[in-house]
Amino acid sequence: MGGNYEKSIYNQLMDVMARLENVEKKSEEKIAKIERDYEQKIYALNEEIKALKAENRHLKEENQMLREENARLKGIINNNSFNTSLPPSSDKNSGKRVNTYNGRKKTGNKAGGQKGHKGTTLTRKIIEEKIKSGKCSHKIKIIGNQQNRKYITRYVADVDVIMTVLEVRIYADGNGKFNIPEKYHSAVTYGPVVKSLVTVLYSEGVMPNKRIASFLNAASNGGLCLSEGSVYNFCREFSEKSRDTIEKLEDILMCQETIYTDATNVNVDKKQGYIRNFSSADTAFYHAMGSKSVKSLEKTGLLNKYTGTLVHDHETALYHFGTGHGEYNVHLLRYLRKNTKETGNTWSGDMMDFLCGLNKARRQAIESGDKQFPEDAARRYRDRYMEIISYGRVQNKETKHRYAQKEEKTLLNRLEKYMDNHLLFIYDFNVAFDNNMSERDLRKVKNRQKMAGGFRKTSGQEMFCNILTIIETLKRRNMGILENIKMFFEGTPVLL
Length: 496
Prior knowledge:
This protein is an alpha/beta fold. It has 18 helices and 5 strands. A 5-stranded mixed sheet has the order 3-2-1-4-5. α3 packs across α5 (about 230-240), α4 (about 210-220) packs across α5 and α9 (about 330-345) packs antiparallel against α12. The longest helix is centred in the first third of the chain and has 76 residues, at about 1-75.
């Protein structure tokens, strides 16, 4: 029995151990499966985390891009005539009516002519001088009894519009031949006064040809019978007759120490063209151009020979011409004002105050008879200018929006690179702080673009420039417009 018992115990032990091994094997398989499942889950979670991180990084970059784009668009939306060189007609989103957005500070003065303004009021003295000189017809109207020797005088200035006809009788010579002058070849022609009025209305009035003809026909009670074609032909004739004078005016400009220039775009045959203006104290010159490029500027002729100083609004193409260059600082003030608004940095405001202060000091020095600042004063001004730029570069590094930061850096680079050009007005008092002269001369061009929509052909653009050159120069020299244009048509111009 003992042997059987031991064998039974042994068998039971072996059976238990076999079952234990089986349980351990199953447990290991379950544990291995659980581990595999967890590894797969961990891998999937890691991949998901990587994808989320990548998506988060992409969203951050996109968010930053949207912030910068938003800042850029805000900058564009906020652009107006107050902080850029845009015209007032673009101020539709400024919160003000068109053409009312003004960057000037209020002076507190009353509206109208200020103290010291010469004015243009027609006075008794002027009327009596005109009567004595024979420049006007003089009629007398009696009110009351003439037997009384005492009387008081009142003058009424008016214009008598009446059509006049000059009959030209050409008699035959000894051989029975009629020698007809060229200007009388047609049976009926128009006189120099009508042609002069048409030319003035075309340029000064900026009126379409059809309206000019209608106006003068109405003024003559229908006697003139002008057509659009006649209006155009008169303007073309004046343009041709003025070419020699314009060449001489160009020679006069080339002898000037300083010339102010600007350009504005016009439509020519449904394409963009330009009209450039060159101005001095007594001469205004206009030139038709296809673009603002160096190649186009070379075709003006004047710039290729000019050796003086050009004052302009930072047109880098113009730096290829002349020997000196002054920058238009009024537009620069707009860029500085815009920078202060978009970045919140203070350096641009400091630069505005500094430049305006320099201009005020310059005016006072001119009134005192000075022709330039002393060298030590000019050196201090220059050092202060660079000090503000250095401070601006420090602030630029802290500018939040990348777009605004980039624009600000570009402005700082321009101020430093063209420092001598921006400050030329303190070294040479013949150079103005602004370019207002040339901008005023271009207003007629903008009126033409707005009213007539531009030109059909380049020849029309050139004709307009020729007419404007003569008329604006006459005005600059205080010469009678109508009477001098009449002399052009008669072949005896006295502009020079």
